[in-house]
Amino acid sequence: MKKIHFIISLFVLATLIGCTNDDGSDIDLDGVSAPTNVSALTTVTQDNTGKVTFVPKGSGATQYKINFGDGSPESAYAAPGEGILHTYAEGVYHAKITAMGINGKTTVADKEVVVSFRAPENLVVVITNDLAISKKVTVKAKADFALFYDVYFGEAGKPDPISANNGESVSYIYQNAGVYTIRVVSKSAAIQTTEYTAQFEAILILNPTASAPTPPTRQAADVISIYGSKYTNVAGTDYFPDWGQASQGSSWGEFDLNGDKMLNYIKLSYQGIALAANTSIDVSGMDFIHLDVWTADTQKIETSLISKTLANGERPVTKDLVANQWTSIDIPISAFTSQTGFTVADIYQLKLVGTPWATGTVFIDNIYFYKEPAESIALPLDFESSALTYAWGGFGNVDAAIVTNPSKTGANLSDKVVKLDKKAGAEVWGGASLNLENTLNYTKGTTVKVNVWSPKVGADILYKMEVSTSPKDGNGNPTVFIEVHATTTVANAWQVLTYDLTTAPGFSTANKYDRVILFPDFGQGGTGTSYYFDDIKQSN
């Protein structure tokens, strides 16, 4: 059995090693953390035999073993989802669950195992609706002498129960809102069980089914982010400091829409967002505050900036919301500073107020301050600006860097260029990518020209553009893209290659391409050579 599990782990390891993305994100196994959230569902047969089954679970684990805590030998390793069986005498035991990750790191968790031949007693059941997820009901049951319990949620066509450890919670999402008969069966090792039945209404909560618009790429100096996944957020921010809202029935959660998290303020009265203690931000150099809001039942949202200086106070701006869709709000900082001399050099809190009061629910994403840049990462690209960060990301064993032009002659006399080192053994698809802050402006043309320095004649220089926010394929790469090839005709000198984007399959001026990718000597493995690129620009 151990040998089989080891072979499986090696297969997974080989798969991970072989995976990489166009953006250069290779798998670092040494950096993979040990498994987390390790536990086990423990069930027992109702026949006075003490036969207990462990089903371990955890994040990042590839195999598990159990020390049963009764002096018997520990189990062999088992795969995720596999049950581990053990027979106990009556008593209370402290088992240990060892979870191993793909790189051999382990985490050990304790598990109390109660084996009693008495039927469960003093059963207490609590049933609640989830405040953030529509039609999600959570049951928590606890009884003396019990090891676990089964819940029958009463939905038609779903006859099988869901099991949970005694005293732990189990949740279920119904297909439809309505009243259901929920039956809880608490179980010990005894033949007799203890039951509880109740009528419960699963409520409908409306929430967004699509993510908020993705913010554009910006230079770090041009944005101060409070919440969102696009930029780096101000550390230590508290999104529910609870200034008394809880007593009014208001609450919050972080809603997860297929991996995209957003703030969820429920029955919004007023809601504070507080920066970490002794932290404030100077937004006097910013032009706007942005936030995306989705609601089904809130008509307006008031946004206030609060100064750390008591005499300065706070100032609000109110915006209308459109029901059942994302409302993107951009409030000029001047809308705050124009109110009786308000200054924004030490903002340490934000406040959100809903209309109507303490009634509606809102989902909020992408809260950040920003300014319009004097310069931006966009075509044309010449790499001469000292104010911009050209964050090229190499992949497939290709390194990328902005360097001094090694050959200021002929077609290129500029000072700075981007260098792509295609190392010995680099992948045939190795290259580098750069995210643009502005998408293509097609009035400037649908042809792209690139100045290229190649060490050889006949190198295939593949030019690719992607819509970074488009759905991802199995390797994590965007599915909306274009690719055009051109071949070098000179060696050790600059030449301009031309790429007609309209010849690429799938090209459309409706697509907002916002990522440039260059592949030097595409289709050939690396031999330890360098390629240089400059002056990427559109033309007609």
- The structure class reads mainly beta
Radius of gyration from the CA trace?
A: 30 Å
Strand fraction equals 35-45%
CATH-defined topology of the largest domain: Jelly Rolls
Total number of β-strand segments? 33
Q: With helices defined by DSSP (H or I, 4 residues minimum), what is the helix count? A: 2
Largest sheet: 6 strands, antiparallel
Provide the CATH architecture of the largest domain.
Answer: Sandwich
CATH superfamily of the largest domain: Galactose-binding lectin
The residue ranges in which pLDDT falls below 50 over 5 or more consecutive positions are 1-8, 10-20
Instruction: Report the principal-axis shape.
Output: globular
What's the level 1 CATH class of the largest domain? Answer: Mainly Beta
Helix proportion range: under 10%
List keywords for this structure.
single chain, 540 residues, mainly beta, Immunoglobulin-like, Jelly Rolls, 4 domains, six-stranded antiparallel beta sheet, five-stranded antiparallel beta sheet, 2 helices, 33 strands, globular, disordered N terminus, PKD domain-containing protein
